[in-house]
Amino acid sequence: MNKPDHVMTALPMFALALSGCAIGYNHTMFGTKSNFGLDIDSKPPTAEVSLARRETAIAPTFENGQTTPVMASFALAADAEATFPMFAAYSSTFSGGDAAVTMAALFTSPEIGNPASDYSSVIPLKSAPTNSILFKTITLQRPGTMHPFAFATDTTAGLKIAWSGTTGQYPDTIRFGVNRKELALAPVFGGETHGPNGITYAAHMPSFLATVDHSGGAGLAPGLRYKHLQFFATGKAADKLALQPGVRAAMAARFDPLAKDQADRFMQFRTAFQDQTTLVEASQAGFKNATDADKQKIITKAVELKLVPAGTKPDAFSDTLSDAVNTKDAGVTSRLKQLKDSLPK
165: pLDDT confidence band, cut at 50, 70 and 90? Predict the structure, then answer.
């Protein structure tokens, strides 16, 4: 068994001894690390110039091979206009729970997902599962209890030099190129339920979703192109984001090379999503800084453009305008632009 194997084997017991958290029993640990370029790090000791991708999942497995759902993707393409080849176009998705099921079910669809559809990641069981570590009985987290949920990402596109103070005057981290780390440590809850075929228990873990979609000709000449879109959400926010084609585009646009038509459509939807979101944010900022009289004029114009319903109050305008984003209707972009252009100067 090599060193990584030893580390992974020891993690559940180590975590249990420290906090009662048993990874692989009542918690799911899911992590990835991607690198394209130079990566020198003292934590853990790393020195590589490579294209590397590492993925790890430690999760409980229940009867009939059922396990908590997680899903990740990473795609990278060289940018012909980049001065340095290390600056590439890349995309990444990282998800778990209901959000992972939603991403998997809809990744080839350019349509907005139906919130009423069932993308549940609940695991049906015939009885409450138990196990033991070091003579201690391990059960799933019970309803009515609280447990921490850790979820984090770290993205670098370019040059990063960092000091922690433990290595004297020398940096302990040097990265050049693309580097992405993602980690989730999620509790798994279980509770009694009533269902067919003798189902009396169900297990479930919280949703999480993180995406990044980056492109840019990192040249040194004028006219530098650079785009970076990133999402990070948990719970219902993650579930609802996963329904949006612009969010799933970070996975689907490069996930299936055979689905070029779907990828092209996703790029169109992603562009519409970004454009509409930018216009909404500009109008919200203008509305916030407007006088009361101008705010009413903005609302009147938004109603006229069918972006908000009649009777919308000033304190609800910004949230209501967010609902106007609709990548299925190309006319929304034009109407949002008209609203932005009509803002008081």
Answer: confident
Q: How far is 213 from 92, CA to CA, in rounded Å?
A: 7
pLDDT of 88 higher than 90 = no
Q: Give the integer Cα–Cα distance in Å for 179 and 214.
A: 12
The beta-carbon contacts of 304-309 under 8 Å, at least 24 apart in sequence, are: 305/335, 305/336, 305/338, 305/339, 306/335, 307/332, 307/335, 307/336, 307/339
Sheet of 89-96, strand order:
70-77, 89-96, 208-215, 227-234
Cα–Cα distance for residue pair 86/51, rounded to 1 Å: 10
Q: Which of 107, 344, 122, 123 is nearest to 249 (CA)?
A: 107
User: By C-alpha distance, which of 65, 82, 85, 98 is closest to 233?
Assistant: 98
Q: How far apart are CA 30 and CA 51, in angstroms?
A: 21
Q: CA 344 from chain center: how many Å?
A: 36
Q: Which of 22, 3, 25 is nearest to 14 (CA)?
A: 22
d(CA 147, CA 152): 17
Highest mean pLDDT among 35-39, 204-208, 331-335: 204-208
Using one digit for the tens of pLDDT, what is the confidence trace for 251-286?
A: 765 444 444 455 566 667 777 888 888 899 999 999
CA nearest neighbour of 185 among 124, 128, 141, 122: 141
With 50 as the cut, is the pLDDT of residue 45 above it? yes
- pLDDT tens, residue by residue, 283-319: 999 999 999 999 999 999 999 999 999 999 999 998 8
Instruction: Answer yes or no: are the C-beta atoms of 280 and 288 closer than 8 Å.
Output: no
The angle subtended at Cα 107 by Cα 208 and Cα 249, nearest 5°, is 80
The pTM (predicted TM-score) of the whole model is 0.66
CA angle centred on 206, ends 203 and 207, rounded to 5°:
125
Question: For helices 292-304 and 260-288, what crossing angle results, to 10°?
Answer: 150
**Roughly how many angstroms between the first and final C-alpha of the chain, as a whole number?**
68
